[in-house]
Amino acid sequence: MTREALLASWHDHLAQARRRSPHTVRAYCAVARRLLHRLDLESWDSVAALDTNALRGQLADRRAEGLSNASAARELSALKGFVGFAREQAGVPAAGAPRLRGPRIKKGLPRPVTPDEAVNLADTVHALAADEWIGARDRAVLLLLYGAGLRIAEALSLKLGDLPLGERLSVTGKGGKQRVVPILPIVAEAVADYAAKLPFLLDADDLLFRGARGGPLSQGMIQKVTARARVVLGLPATATPHALRHSFATHLLGAGADLRSLQELLGHASLGSTQIYTRVDAASLLETYRNAHPRESRD
Fold first, then answer.
1. Which residue among 65, 133, 140, 288 is least enclosed by CB atoms within 10 Å?
2. Which one of 3, 174, 179, 197 is the catalytic residue?
3. Which element (helix H / strand E) includes 221?
């Protein structure tokens, strides 16, 4: 079996069985390719035979190239996943898989934007667009992120056949996990407005959001137009598309939503991932207190 055949199988497993995002698939395949070439491996048996020392050596080489702690942790996750997949293909028991801890990563709190900033971002990307339909497209995507708490990949996975949007939308998220999210009238109207202005003929199974030349819209383009809009609005670099999803969660929690409901809306696999928003909300309250309390303002 050739290396390219191994990589093709790994790619299909990630993209189809695991339903990972295109970005993750590319990154994990790049990690596997480096491992295969460095150790001259060309079969599932040879990959499955790798032990902890082999993975530690691969990671050490990458750290010598200047890999950060966060990147090293992601690289290790990809390595362990690839070796685990190889063991399945080779029929090797999973119990003996290599065990290796990655570097500790200090997680920072998400940086949400205010409700006004979220709406202003959506309106500004619309105003800055070269064509009216592109502006309507960018506004619709950002409102899906803020109004429904979608990930960018989830918003861009909408198909023409999903329209018209009703009060609820079924979304397939990470790991193929499905959830139902509420759709606000302003979000449904923005998506419908874009669809009415779309200059391309699409079938029901085609992706709804398209690039300027008619191909599927990329996440990078949404990040690019958001970056330009935040400069115009004077917002910090933390005002990214993904920050709109953080804002959705933080604002719902501040309005009284319980953590279990929020976990379902966000599609988090564990409650621990959702609990970080309690810290965000507490931090926001503290900042408001410091800015508004008479004694604090005099100090």
1. 65
2. 174
3. helix 219-233
